[in-house]
Specification:
Elements lengths: L1 H29 L9 H9 L1 E7 L8 E4 L2 E3 L1 H13 L2 E7 L2 H9 L5 E2 L7 H4 L2 E3 L4 E10 L9 H5 L5 E5 L3 H9 L4 E5 L2 H10 L4 E5 H10 L7 E13 L2 E3 L3 H16 L2 H9 L8
Parallel strand pairs: 1-4, 1-5, 8-9, 8-10
Antiparallel strand pairs: 2-3, 5-12, 6-12, 7-10, 7-11
Length: 283
């Protein structure tokens, strides 16, 4: 009798739980994998099925350049594709007319992340958040050999009236040059090769670039080295990082963890070696 009473008492519970369990199972089966991601920024990317990556539309080898047709290749392109794959979504590039516009696209939520050889600057940090640096390069002067004596500090020598220093338009180096050489004329150039022709021919005293770009140019233009020398300022670091919207804190934390992961398993160094002609320090 006692056992029968227990069975009767338990029966409503079992019956009540039965339909609910079936409904829960049906709901679970119908649920999207994205529903299990609490952070809204990661859920947004998962639900869209794509990672929209902002990048400058021009070529900046070996970070990004066209290999032929519409295919883009390079260090930053490989990073972006790998990040999208690890997030389980497709990769989509959104091109910008300048590096500052890359930051604008991220700030305005027209892109999830900016991966475009972006320098961390105080001005840009007012509009977006930056990840840990994925590479450290150095501010570098490519100097006309006749314009600046080798015995003198070129930074001090070029900061004078009459000196002309080129920098790529829309890049952080325009601001860097204006800060380093307030007395000189800073000339923005849209075309890197055109700027370097001016340095070699004496139209500019120097071009202000990063060490990775300088190394690539020197390797691919050995005939110009009789006219142009490089001065790498090891005390002036230029930190490159990913940019995300200021509200996307979980995505930022994930990207920092991603960088730690690829450094720990050695894939970051393999990627560096595959794209850079000379060693570049990756922090």
């Amino acid at each position: 009798m006692r056992g029968l009473l227990a069975a009767v008492l338990l029966l409503p519970v079992v019956l009540a739980a039965g339909p609910g369990s079936a409904a829960s199972a049906a709901e679970e089966a119908a649920a999207s994998p994205c529903d299990y991601l609490p952070p809204p920024d990661l859920k947004r990317i998962c639900a869209s099925g794509r990672l929209v990556v902002a990048r400058y539309e021009g070529e900046r080898p070996p970070f990004f350049s066209q290999a032929g047709g519409n295919e883009w290749v390079g260090f930053d392109v490989d990073l972006a594709r790998d990040i999208a794959a690890r997030l389980g979504v497709a990769y989509e590039a959104r091109l910008a007319e300048s590096f500052d516009e890359v930051v604008d696209l991220v700030a305005q939520r027209q892109a999830d992340v900016g991966i475009s050889k972006l320098s961390i600057t105080l001005e840009r940090s007012q509009r977006v958040r930056f990840s840990k640096p994925y590479m450290t390069v150095y501010q570098t002067l490519l100097i006309n050999r006749l314009a600046a004596p080798k015995q003198q500090d070129p930074f001090a020598f070029l900061d004078r009236p009459g000196a002309r220093v080129g920098a790529l338009e829309g890049s952080s180096y325009v601001g860097y040059a204006e800060s380093e050489f307030p007395a000189a004329e800073v000339v923005p150039y849209a075309d890197f090769d055109g700027m370097m022709r001016q340095v070699a021919e004496g139209g500019l005293d120097a071009a202000f670039v990063d060490s990775a770009r300088a190394n690539t140019w020197r390797q691919t233009n050995p005939e110009r080295l009789i006219q142009v020398r490089a001065f790498v300022a090891r005390d002036r670091k230029d930190l490159l990082a990913f940019a995300v919207n200021w509200q996307d804190t979980h995505l930022l934390a994930w990207l920092d963890l991603y960088l730690d992961s690829i450094r720990g398993d050695g894939s970051a160094q393999r990627l560096y070696r595959s794209w850079f002609l000379e060693a570049v320090r990756g922090d």
